[in-house]
Every structure is written in structure tokens, then in C-alpha cells.
Design goal:
Elements lengths: L3 H4 L10 H15 L2 H4 L13 E9 L5 E2 L2 E2 H14 L4 E12 L4 H18 L2 E10 L7 E11 L15 E4 L5 H11 L15 H10 L5 E4 L4 H13 L1 E6 L7 H10 L12 E5 L4 H8 L9 E9 L5 E4 L5 E4 L12
Parallel strand pairs: 4-5, 9-12
Antiparallel strand pairs: 1-6, 2-3, 4-6, 7-10, 7-11, 8-10, 9-11, 12-13
Helix pairs in contact: 2-5, 4-5, 4-7
Amino acid sequence: MTSKSEKNISLAHGSGGTQMQELLQKIIRPELDNKILREQNDSAILENRGGELVFTTDSFVVQPIFFPGGDIGHLSVCGTVNDLAMMGAKPDALSLSLIIEAGFEIESLKKIIISIKKTADEAGVKIVTGDTKVVGPGQADKIYINTSGVGWRKEKIPTGWNSVQSGDAVIVSGTIGHHGVAILAARAELPFEKELKSDAAVLSNVTSALTEKFPNVRWMRDATRGGVAAVLNELAVQTGFDIEVEDGKIPVTGEVRGAAEILGLDPLYLANEGRFIIICPDENSEEMLSFLKEYEVSKTAQKIGTITSPGNPGKVVLTTEYGSRRIIDMPSGEQLPRIC
């Protein structure tokens, strides 16, 4: 019979000794295997692919760690490669650091590592270095993950928020709010008639193709914590422009809208992990929408608004289907903790 110690992570798995080596050799390295990782050095030596090196880092503490549409491993890769993608970079390599609570099931860890591998393959990136730490019972919540990523971009596309102009179009790459309601429903074990699934997805494949075809993309940003509302407010403050958004054009599914109403939330403020905002010249918006809809991850993309005249400071204004107008404020106070 398998002993409890063989089924669960123990403090010994983080000691640097025999148990840690067994964990690495039997669970982690076989799934993530590649030439660079096989060197087992303290740092990875990466090939210079030319252009600008883009670097990012992120940490993931989502609860629950397995949820409809994904898990913490899938989310950690998506979140990091998407940050690189928003800068117009092609993701190249990731680091992976695990902070695991003693008692965590080894079988669950294996599922997470397999998910990381599958998502990394989809994004075309390799896990090239990493670290594992184990903390005592009650000192973490099962598992936390930190990932850092590097990518390369050959040109400065998108050109950045300082290139945004009055009259530019605001596009969202798909229906919003799925990740936020999926996490909350799973956390509270809410019995919705139809299962709500996270939108967590790799965006780098579509952004690479998008910026190659449309080099005049002004700005991109993934709408994660704080949702679309936070992203647009940040842009309004940076640029000083007002942003006009039409409520009737914001893509929200009936399931998400209904769940948000039950939870007392506005879909504009819900987290997304597979959606991004694009600012582009309005004359290119229709062609760009047609292009985005060729990809599964962005098939429900819509133009939702326009960059308008300078404000003092810039603000986000929503026009309802009845013609009334209201300010969409930046999220404040405690939002939705442990969402990513």
C-alpha cells in the first residue's frame, strides 16, 4: 500500500535532498522536458532572437486551484504569455516557481504540471528554469505559482498609449466576464443551470498575427483584474482622452449577465483571462474585427466605443441603450480576491 508520505507533499520535498530530487525527476521534469531544462543549471541561457527583449513576471494564487475551464497551472502560463503578447512580443521562454503547502496531493501537482505543459505547447514557449519551495501546513493555501517570461518583438508594435488619438476605435476581443463569474461560482459552489467556464486562454497566437497584418495597432491590454472598466480607466488617465463606450455593443453572454446580476456585479468589472482591448485607427476597425473573428479565441470580438476629446482628466463614459449616460469609475476598495 502507498504510504501517506508518497501521496502528499512533505517538508522534505523542499529540503534540496533526496525527496526533492525524486519530485523533480518523477513529476516535474518528465512533463516539462526540453534541451535547456535538461542542462539543470541555476539559470537558463537563451538564444538571442533579435529585436527588443520583453520581460514580465506574475504570481498566481487563484482559489479554487481547479475550476471550470482551467486550473492554476493553465492560468499561470496564459497570464504570463498574454502580458508579453500585449506588448507585441512573441513569447519565448518561461520560468516556473512553485510554493507548495505540505500535505498537498502529489496527484494534484502532477495534473497541474501536465496542464502547464499543454498550455506552454499551445503558446509555443518552453519552461527553461524554475524553483520549488515547500512551506508548513497552514502557511499557504495548497499551491502558489510564480512565472516570469521573456519574448522578442522586432518592431515597436503596438506603439503604446502615447500614440492613441481622438477618433480611434475601442475593440474588445470577445465576450467578457467569464473568468470572474466562473471562479466565484466555483468558490461558492453556486448551482447555476449551465456551467460557467473561465475564458482563460493563450492570446499570443492571435496578437502575433494581428500586429503583423495591422502594424498601426496603437495599444493593447488584457482585461484581467478589474476587467474592462479598469483597463479603460487606466488608458483614459494616461492619455487624458475621454472614452465613449456603448452599452449595447459590449459583448456579454446571457449566462454571464444572469450570474453577474445574481452576484450583484457589473460584467465590466469582472476579471477576464482570455480577452484583451485593442485601440486602433477607426478606419481599420471593421477589417480588424473580421480578422479577429477568424480565430476561436476572438470570434465574438466587437467594437464597443471610441476615443474622444481630451478630458480633465480623461474619463470613461457609458451610453445606455436608452440614451442616458453615466461615468464608469475605476474600481476601488477590495475587488475580487484570489481571482488569478
